[in-house]
Design goal:
little secondary structure; two-stranded antiparallel sheet; 2 strands
Length: about 70
Amino acid sequence: MLDVMNIYLDQGAATFVQGSGDILWTIDIDWPLGNMLGTSRYLPNYASIKTQLGSFEDGPWPVRAAGA
């Protein structure tokens, strides 16, 4: 994975506040959907993300190694 884009599209009520913590994004490495026994390792700096990353207009947010 080199890039990521996570966007919440509010379909009506406009109740989501960016950065409020109402929605938290997490990118896990080895936790298959439905397998609660996985080791649950998260990509460094990509656990409990409070804001959107990337957009349809600007493209995805790059995921780069530290120091790259």
